Amino acid sequence: MINNMNRKRGLSPVIATMLLVVIVIVIAIVVFVWFRGITEEVITKFNDKNIRLVCDEIELQASYDSETLSIVNIGNVPVYKIKARTFLQGNYQTVTLTENWPATGLNQGGAYSGPLSGDFEKILLIPVLLGNSERGELAHTCEEKNGEEIII
Amino acid sequence: MIKNKRGLSAMIGYILLIVLGIVMSVVIFTSLRTYVPQDPLECPDGAAIFVKNATCSNGENLTITIKNNGKFNVAGYFIRGTNSAELLSTIELYENFFPDPTGEIQVLGNSIMFSVSESNSLNPGEEKISLFELDQEIIAFEIVPTRFQGEGKNQRYVTCTNAKVVEEISCG
């Protein structure tokens, strides 16, 4: 029985160690790539600051009168676009402001005045920012909490 | 029999754990690095300007004298007009800026700068005169001072919204 045990062949400890290390590295790479694939692409603005944090710094002043929407950017964040969400009796629709909209967006201190016709109870202006990512410049729509509300 | 049994070295186990820990920390750091909150650059509370004088000549030439009555230097200002008391001031008057004969004051983007050097050049107590040739009527205008805040690559052009000044004048 002892002779049988001496004749048993197995894996060299050196090779086993190398295999283990290689397996760990491969698994780590797979986990890393998978994790990056399921998480949202990071968009940054102003020296690697997450664009979601920049959305909180937006300050807009807005008014609506005689089918004319007026917006002034009183903050320090340039707004690329604005989506106007209009509410009526529990329903809403969203349009992106394009008519009279500045080509470079609403920079800080900038003002906008354009038409917005329809019957609304409330308008919510949702800013869209332009940030940087690995794929280049990308637009990011801020959350509703960062929007400016106008009660008609 | 027990002494001849072979098993996984404890050292290898440690190496595996450490490598896993490092990889996970790199993954988490990469994804959360951008969420570190940073204080936004803002205009200091003591920055302020006021309209010392505002006149309308020939029905369309608006001349304003702006004086720095705050504690900090100011770089320039935004100026917007309105022709309705109910509406926001959305008439961008920088477009009507008449070039300064001295060449000092200039338009930068959508704001008026007190110096070509793009710095906080208007010291407390100093004043500057600007002329605007209006192409539409206004009943009031508002000016908001601006400053370069921060240093190096963190420097940004910020608006001092809290120091906004509104002046009523019929011109244009």
Write up this protein.
The complex is a heterodimer of chains A (152) and B (172). Chain A has helices at 2-7, 13-38, 51-55; strands spanning 44-45, 49-50, 60-65, 68-73, 81-88, 91-96, 111-115, 122-133, 136-141, 148-151. In chain A, the strands form 3 sheets. In chain A, strands 5, 6, 8, 9 and 10 form a 5-stranded antiparallel beta sheet that branches. Chain A has 152 residues and is an alpha+beta fold. Chain A is 24% helix and 38% strand. Chain A folds into 2 domains: 2-38; 44-151, Sandwich (Immunoglobulin-like), CATH 2.60.40. Chain B is mostly beta strands and 172 residues long. Chain B contains 1 helix and 10 strands. Chain B has one helix at 10-32, and strands at 49-57, 61-68, 76-82, 91-92, 106-108, 111-113, 127-133, 138-149, 156-159, 165-171. In chain B, strands 3, 4, 5, 6, 8, 9 and 10 form a 7-stranded antiparallel beta sheet that branches. Chain B has a 3-stranded antiparallel beta sheet with strand order 1-2-7, with no helix packed on it. In chain B, strand 3 (76-82) and strand 4 (91-92) form a beta hairpin.
